[in-house]
Amino acid sequence: MTTVLSADWVLPVEDPSIPQGRLAAPIRDGAVAFEDGRIAAVGPAAELGWGTRYEGAAIVPGLVNAHTHLEYAVYGGFGDGLPFDRWIATHMQRKALLGFDDHLAIARFGAVENLRSGVTTVGDASYSGAAALAAAELGLRATVYLEVFGSDPDAARARFAALSETARPALSERVRLGASPHAPYTTSMDVYAAMAELGLPLMTHLAENREERQWLVDGSGPWAESRGKHLLPPIGTTGIRALARRGLLSPNLAAVHCVDVDVEEGQGLLVDSGTGIVHCPRSNGYLGSGVADFFTLYDHGNRIGIGTDSPNSAGDFDMFAELRTSLILSRAQTRDPESSFSAEDILMLATLGGARALNLDAEIGSIVPGKRADLAVIALADTALHPWDNPASAVVLGGSPEHVQATLVGGEIRYEKGNGEWQRHRSAAVDARRRMLAGASAAPPGSASSP
Ligand SMILES: [Zn+2]
C-alpha cells in the first residue's frame, strides 16, 4: 500500500539527476510517497496527491545524529565546569555504578528523545550494549558501536564478545553492530587493530582537545599533573598519526571530534584515508575543548556528519541546537558568510553528511526513490523565523524538538507530537539517575574499576 504525506515544503536534500555537490531545490507544496518502508516518489503534491497533509510544515529527511550515547540520556550536568580529565573521571566512575536494567531504562529515554528531535538514525557509542535493545524497541535506526578500552587485545575481544551477546537479539536491518575503541588515551593501538579485524563499522573519539595531544605525544600537559589512572602511557605521537602508521585510518572508521588536528592530519591523513568525521560543536564548547575547523575539514574533502554527543557534555539530544551551533561557529570562524556554510549545507550535513560518514548513504540521508522512508515533519508555522520563504533556514534556525510533529523510520511513525510514551520513559530514566547518585555518594572516590 502506498502512503502519501504532504506539507508546505519538502526538502529532499539530494536529487540524483543533478551533479553531485549541488543540493536539490525545496519543493513547494510537496509530497512524499512511500511503500513497504521505502520512498516511491517525491514531487509536487498536485502530482502525487495530498495524502496526509501537514499545514505550515516542512518534510525533511530524518536527521542523522552521527555520534551520541543513548545510555547517558540523564547524565546532564555531571562534572559541570570541570577540566576534561576530571570530567571524564567523574563520568566513568558514575556509569560503572549502574546495572544493566538502569542502562536500558536510560537508553530507552535517549532513543525517545532522539526521535522527538527528528532523528531517525544514530551512531551510538555504547558502554553496555543496552543502546541496541533500546533502539530496536523504540524503532530508531542505529549503528551501535560497542565500546572497548584498555591495552590488552584479548581482554577487549572478550569484552566485545560479551557485549555482542547482549546486543544480538536487537540486530536487524535497522539496528547493526559496530565496535568503538574508546580513544587513543584509553585504548592501545593493538586493541584498535583487534577491533578492525572484526570487519565491522568502527567509531572512536579522536583529537578531542590539545591536552590529549600533549599527553599522547610526550606525557606533558595538564593530564600529567592530575592523574594517570584511566590513561594509557604516552605513545610518542598523536592519535591520528598512530592510527595512520598502523593502517587503521579507513573509510570504515568514524572519528568523533577532530578538534585538535594540524594541517597534515586534517587535510592529509584523514582525508586521504577516507576516514569519516563527526562534528559535535556543543560538546566541544561545553568541555572547553575548542572549536573544530569544521568548514576547512569539509572543504578539503572530508566526509563529515554532525552529532550531539551525549547530554553529559551537550545538555540534550537537540539536533536543531547542534545545527545552529554548527552554522554560527563555522561562519564566525571563516568570517565570511558567503563562502561558509549555508543553512541548506548544514541540513545536508545533518542528513546525507551523517549518512556518508557512517557509510549508510545508499539507504538513508535524503528523500530519493528507493531509499528508506526515514522522514521528519517540522512545524514552521509557529517558529520565531516567520515567514519561512527559505524553508532550510527556517528548519535550521527555527527548529526544535517542540516543533517536530512526526518522525518516521522506514515509513512507520515512531514519534508523534503529544505522544504519552515520552513521560513514562523519562520517569524510568530519572529513577535510574537517582540510584546512580545514591551509589556515587556511597562509593569512595576513584572506586570505579574500568572506564
Ligand atoms: Zn562521545
Walkthrough of the structure:
The chain has 451 residues and is an alpha/beta fold. The chain folds into 2 domains: 3-61 and 368-416, Urease, subunit C, domain 1 (Roll), CATH 2.30.40.10; 63-364 and 431-442, TIM Barrel. It has 17 helices and 15 strands. The chain has helices at 45-48, 84-95, 100-116, 130-138, 153-167, 189-196, 210-218, 222-226, 239-245, 263-273, 281-286, 294-299, 311-314, 319-334, 343-357, 391-398, 421-442; strands spanning 2-10, 27-35, 38-44, 52-61, 63-68, 119-126, 141-148, 175-181, 202-206, 253-257, 276-279, 303-306, 375-379, 404-409, 412-416. It has a 7-stranded mixed sheet. Strand 6, helix 4 (130-138) and strand 7 form a beta-alpha-beta unit. Helix 3 packs across helix 4 (130-138), helix 14 (319-334) packs across helix 15 (343-357) and helix 15 (343-357) crosses helix 16 (391-398). Zinc ion binds next to loops. Residues 67, 69, 125, 205, 256, 309 line the site of zinc ion.
Quick description:
This protein has 451 residues and is of the alpha/beta class.
Protein traits:
Urease, subunit C, domain 1, binds zinc ion, alpha/beta, 39% helix, disordered C terminus, single chain, 451 residues, globular, 15 strands, TIM Barrel
Could you say what the CATH architecture of the largest domain is? Alpha-Beta Barrel
CATH homologous superfamily assignment of the largest domain: Metal-dependent hydrolases
Count of strand segments: 15
The tally of structural domains comes to 2
| Gap between N and C termini | 49 Å
Radius of gyration: 21 Å
- Percentage of residues assigned to helices: 25-40%
Stretches with pLDDT under 50, minimum 5 residues: 444-451
User: How does the major sheet shape up?
Assistant: 7 strands, mixed
| Strand order across the largest sheet | 3-2-1-4-13-14-15
CATH class of the largest domain: Alpha Beta
Shape: globular
Number of helices: 17
| Structural class estimated from helices and strands | alpha/beta
- Round the mean pLDDT to the nearest integer and report it: 93
CATH-assigned fold name of the largest domain: TIM Barrel
Q: Bin the strand percentage.
A: 15-25%
**Ligand catalogue:** zinc ion
